[in-house]
Amino acid sequence: MxxxxxxxxxxxxxxxxxxxxxxxxxxxxxxxxxxDNSNDGKNIxxxxxxxxxxxxxxxxxxxxxxxxIGMGAPGPVNYATGVIYNAVNLGWPDNYPLKDLLExxxxxxxxxxxxxxxxxxxxxxxxxxNGAKDLVCVTLGTGVGGGVIANGNIVQGVSGAAGEIGHxxxxxxxxxxxxxxxxxxxxxxxxxxxxxxxxxxxLKKEDAAGELKDIFAANDLVSAKNVFDAARNGDALAxxxxxxxxxxxxxxxxxxxxxxxxxxxxLGGGVSKAGNVLLDxxxxxFDKFAFPRVKKSTTLALATLGNDxxxxxxxxxxxxxxxxx
Length: 325
Description:
The protein is α/β, with parallel strands linked by helices.
């Protein structure tokens, strides 16, 4: 019997990444298409079905080659029904029946989960998690997302909103406003957006000086990458920003670890590309706040799959369902 492929889809607001993946989690083919969120997002599932058929034809493969399709979508998802909530960036109304529509359009069994959850699963299966059954994955990008895996299974929560690590309240009183409507969320500090905001606050002070100040003077803006590069070079202002960010992130991760006692915490997303200059400082603060036994048994690591984590994790949803039926 010929080996089946899994379809992994990582749905983003501007781009949809797709991959054919074998049962061992190895990508056979990957590509991407623009996400068309016009007309209330009605074309999204249609375009996914079309591009899968086109790719199969291009590769000379039949539809029977595919075992099913798994998708990571941005927003809270009801895993049991495949209904997605609050996906405003995609044009969809609330309570959108994504799983049902995807199955109708593709004629394949489908499973849907939150995109950060899928990234966590991907890292567990084939990335930095290296098979760890108790794992927390934190994606540090424009925002902060998270996925929690306990005993090899993703934690969904009663309404599909488990793992919203970015919305842990890091500053109880005051703090910057967050897109979720609260203030002082971890996302307002540890995301790329938050890092730039903190850097700008420091740069506006009269005594601001050094490499980061020079970059700002030349370009009238700075990026999170600028902050980490300057910190790596010993710039005092950048190091101060890094200290603030790593304090709040280390504290949040320690509190998560004290609750869950995971084997690994994996940091992914664009901000994690800062590498050890960030990870080392986060570890110092994690060790400061973690319960001793938790500190000893938890490894902090950088994600290794990059942009492939989402499609690999989405494919695992189908593989895992197939293996337990």
